[in-house]
Design goal:
The protein is an alpha/beta fold. Helix content is 33%, strand content 20%. The protein has ten helices and 17 strands. Strand 9 and strand 10 form a beta hairpin.
């Protein structure tokens, strides 16, 4: 029998199987934790919110020593039930990734990699949200509870997940793709975040990643607010970083479990809808559908405009023009020299260099929302020699 990932399943059947298996994981977890004995399982103290999905259905028992939440024990099932539970999870760990991989099989679109911890992990068990985020792209999800940027993750179920840096360094450019989404920080200490973010961005750029979408934290603690300030400061310095502001988008919404961080099904869908325009805008023509854009796609009503003096050594700025369509609309920039895209220039402004002299330079703006993307170019400027 061929492996499930290689079977020819229709998209509807794949979604059904994925939904069935994910619900079975939840059912197995609930059964194992309701019919329990008295084995004590200790976790590493969690100074940050490294709460795994399985913790949503576990009943916390106060620690005998009374240490305020830093040592936790959970009632776990008897030996026979534990063996059955582990066997079910092992089977699902093989079957579910195979089904999900068939949705994002090679050749289905440009590769996009997303890194996350247990917060973004909601995308793993809400297939509808994953479908929204991954439509038309080859989506690689690297999601694990307790994951950190550079340091090994915190302990979870007897293991520490690889850091984002470890996975990036062990991946080829093709495995990562041109676009990487980072939703990591809930398990990272704020005092190391700036240095670790810089190290990771350098590693991504060295692998040829052209666009990095960085998701802000929910500001439930002062530490997360500090991390968000670091993310915004780094983005101002590095034009290849686009900020997907989850803190602003989620404020006041009923998208969360009681901790105010981990997502319910509605929150998982909201995260996918937030990220989708950033991916499409960064992706550009590679994610453009074969059919004409529908009215819901962004439509340009006033073209992009170049501002500045077109001379070598001077800086030109691209104003994005005016776009209408379903909000939010996210824009991404390219620069053209004699009608061809200049590699590695994703910023809204650019300093003209010797290679531009005597050439026509223009900017291209991709605008995207959750429905799709559209493109518009500015008028060209002839670049003069330096004065």
């Amino acid at each position: 029998m061929p492996p499930l990932g290689g079977a020819k399943l229709s998209p509807m059947l794949r979604r059904f199987v994925a939904l069935f298996l994910s619900r079975l994981v939840v059912a197995a977890t609930v059964t194992a934790t309701r019919t329990n004995a008295t084995r004590t399982a200790r976790e590493e103290p969690l100074g940050t919110h490294a709460v795994p999905f399985s913790a949503f259905v576990m009943r916390r028992v106060p620690d005998a020593a009374g240490v305020g939440g830093r040592n936790r024990r959970y009632r776990v099932g008897g030996m026979r039930r534990r063996i059955t539970f582990v066997a079910v999870l092992l089977a699902l760990s093989v079957a579910l990734p195979a089904v999900l991989a068939s949705d994002g099989a090679a050749g289905s679109g440009p590769r996009v990699t997303m890194f996350g911890d247990s917060i973004a992990g909601a995308l793993s068990y809400v297939p509808e949200a994953r479908d929204v985020l991954g439509a038309g792209i080859d989506l690689r999800l690297e999601l694990a509870p307790c994951r950190r940027l550079v340091a090994p993750g915190c302990w979870y179920q007897g293991a520490r997940p690889d850091s984002v840096l470890d996975i990036v360094q062990s991946s080829s450019s093709a495995e990562l793709g041109d676009i990487v989404v980072i939703d990591i920080g809930y398990n990272d200490p704020p005092n190391n975040y700036d240095t670790d973010m810089g190290t990771l961005v350098d590693a991504l750029l060295s692998r040829g990643v052209a666009h990095v979408v960085w998701v802000t934290m929910r500001e439930e603690t002062d530490g997360y607010r500090e991390i968000n300030e670091i993310i915004r400061a780094r983005a101002r310095e590095q034009p290849r970083i686009a900020i997907a502001d989850w803190e602003s988008a989620s404020r006041g919404k009923n998208w969360f479990n009681p901790d105010g961080l981990h997502l319910n099904a509605e929150g998982a869908m909201a995260l996918a809808v937030l990220l989708r325009p950033y991916i499409l805008a960064a992706c550009g023509s590679a994610c453009q559908p074969s059919e004409s854009p529908t009215p819901r796609f962004p439509r340009n009503v006033s073209p992009p405009v170049l501002r500045g003096t077109p001379a070598v050594g001077r800086r030109l700025t691209c104003l994005p023009g005016t776009w209408v369509g379903t909000r939010p609309i996210v824009v991404s920039y390219r620069w053209l020299r004699s009608g061809k895209v200049i590699a590695g220039e994703p910023s809204s402004s650019r300093r003209l260099e010797a290679a531009d002299r005597g050439r026509l330079v223009a900017c291209r703006v991709w605008a995207a929302n959750a429905s799709g993307s559209s493109v518009a170019n500015s008028k060209s400027m002839l670049v003069r020699p330096a004065k």
